[in-house]
UniProtKB/TrEMBL annotation:
InterPro entries: Polypren_kinase. Belongs to the polyprenol kinase family. GO terms for cellular component: endoplasmic reticulum membrane. This is dolichol kinase. One of its GO terms (molecular function) is dolichol kinase activity. Keywords: Endoplasmic reticulum, Kinase, Membrane, Transferase, Transmembrane, Transmembrane helix. Its EC number is 2.7.1.108. Residues 1-34 are annotated as: Disordered. Its main location: endoplasmic reticulum.
Length: 512
């Protein structure tokens, strides 16, 4: 999130005007390339150098942690180099064929489309590393008839014995991933989501829905509710074409809404069977069987009923940036302590919340009657320039994924801390008092200092008083915060995704 100065306004209309002005200032401005521009200019930009330095440090940590050239994971690092070379060769070929037009060069964040799936797989589910590395080739501009066989052969020729290398399974993973990337690009118009976002989320969906095998309840809730959501959305997509010729817009909207509301619970009931019980019956028994869960749920409901209306009412008294960061801080307060009390219940709740947020965005995206218009009006109050670029409001979806993923993957609160404390204070302090900007960015050095200091202090508190971060020293926690703060200050990829993922990676690498 950029850190421009933001003011206060007395009325809702003035606040919205100020927010729009803030967005226009915050949005990175495209500059025309110089006549003497070379391909090295992009790689030698100060912000790119900082990002390269940080990513190389993390890869060095991983290489050393897993035995270097003699280690069991050397094959994965070798494949890493192959994929990077393929990305660079593809970029250079396009650059050369265009007559050395600098506009054809990919942005640096393209490398995150490989770095994040590779590192997260290597550290937390090693058997998926090779598959996810091959799926990254979707972002490389190679004709489809050549790219799919290349991905498949990479998996088949180099997969370890325990990797999902069965010919049919790996081929289906490639096809599923490709379909997801195409659908996401079509829905977002490559504005709300760019190629990097589509690549990252298509790999994530492929892993969750097809490749990852887990019997944990929270994963089954996430997988099956997400699958039910996609099935109903696909059905409604087909039905909308059938209805378009013999019904007006209002009736079509009502019918699609009815189909969604009725179909989603029905399919969830068919897919999600826990302890041979109906999912709703199981959930009620699960919550009522524990006073701790009842207390947590009651606290959440009371907080939402009290805080949400007040935030909406007083939103006009704050800048857009400040009002958005309130949600970050509230999530930190509402999850950090309950997670220690009953981690499984919180994980189940967060898994369901991801699909709930997708449901809200689906109703808003199509403006389905009777709630779609209202949801659009409410959510637009908190949208920034990224949300206004395309048809999807991505911020709150990115937020819940950034907070939830580290907790589901490794029981780590780094998403809560980085977004609830670090990113929030960096944006607010940088916008109000920041004067020194990182070269080539709209982010301030003061904001980065706020991120590093606040996250370091919060991690120290969490370690000493809440029992988190038992396997990592105070010094290494400070290193995690320093590297993450520098990356946050110099990167352009959405902070709600990049920073929690990077902090989780570095935390795991520096564990003793």
């Amino acid at each position: 999130m950029s850190r421009r100065r933001g003011g206060y306004s007395g009325t809702a209309g003035a606040a919205r005007t100020a927010a729009k002005e803030e967005q226009s200032k915050s949005e990175p401005q495209e500059t025309q390339p110089k006549d003497n521009y070379s391909a090295l200019d992009e790689l030698l930009a100060p912000d790119v150098i900082v990002q390269l330095f940080i990513l190389c440090i993390s890869i060095h940590f991983a290489f050393a942690k897993y035995g270097g050239f003699q280690g069991p994971f050397f094959l994965h690092f070798q494949n890493c180099a192959i994929i990077v070379i393929a990305i660079l060769v593809s970029a250079y070929s396009k650059y050369k064929s265009s007559g050395y037009n600098p506009g054809t060069l990919p942005k640096f964040q393209v490398f995150y489309s490989f770095y994040l799936p590779f590192m997260l797989s290597l550290l937390f589910n090693e058997r998926l590393t090779l598959v996810n590395s091959a799926l990254v080739l979707n972002i490389v501009e190679i004709p489809l008839p050549f790219r799919i066989p290349m991905q498949w052969m990479l998996i088949q020729l180099q997969a370890p014995e325990d990797s999902p290398k069965a010919p049919i399974q790996s081929f289906l993973a490639i096809i599923i991933n490709y379909v997801f990337s195409i659908v996401l690009a079509k829905i977002s118009h490559l504005k709300s989501l760019d190629n990097v976002d589509c690549s990252l989320f298509s790999i994530l969906l492929t892993d969750v829905l097809f490749l990852i095998q887990s019997d944990s309840i929270y994963f089954q809730v996430l997988k099956n509710t997400l699958l039910a959501f996609l099935i109903v959305v696909s059905f409604n997509y087909v039905m909308s074409f059938l209805l378009s010729s013999f019904s007006d817009g209002y009736m079509r909207s009502i019918m699609l809404f009815t189909s969604f509301v009725a179909g989603t619970p029905f399919i969830i009931k068919k897919l999600l069977i826990i302890d041979e019980k109906d999912p709703l019956d199981w959930l009620l028994d699960y919550i009522s069987g524990s006073k701790t869960r009842i207390t947590i749920l009651s606290t959440w409901l009371i907080s939402l009923f009290v805080l949400v209306p007040n935030i909406l009412i007083f939103k006009s008294n704050f800048s857009l940036n400040t009002s958005r960061k309130v949600w970050h801080f509230l999530i930190l307060l509402l999850i950090s302590k309950p997670f220690l009390m009953d981690p499984e219940f919180v994980k189940i709740s967060l898994a369901g919340t991801i699909v709930l947020f997708l449901t809200v965005e689906y109703l808003r995206y199509l403006k389905l009657q009777p709630f779609g218009e209202y949801l659009d009006a409410r959510l637009r109050l908190f949208s920034d320039f990224r949300d206004d670029k395309g048809p999807i409001i991505i911020s709150y979806i990115y937020l819940i994924i950034g907070v939830t993923a580290p907790l589901l993957i490794a029981n780590s609160p780094v998403g809560l801390i980085s977004l609830g404390v670090g990113d929030s204070l960096a944006s607010i302090i940088g916008g109000k008092w920041g004067k020194r900007y990182w070269p080539g960015t709209t982010k301030t050095v003061e904001g980065t200092l706020a991120f590093v200091v606040s996250t370091s202090a919060t991690m120290y508190f969490f370690k000493e008083n809440l029992g988190y971060f038992n396997g990592i020293s105070h010094t290494n926690l400070c290193i995690v915060c320093l590297l993450s703060g520098l990356l946050e200050g110099n990167s352009t990829l959405n902070d709600n995704i990049l920073i929690p993922a990077f902090m989780l990676i570095i935390e795991r690498l520096l564990c003793e």
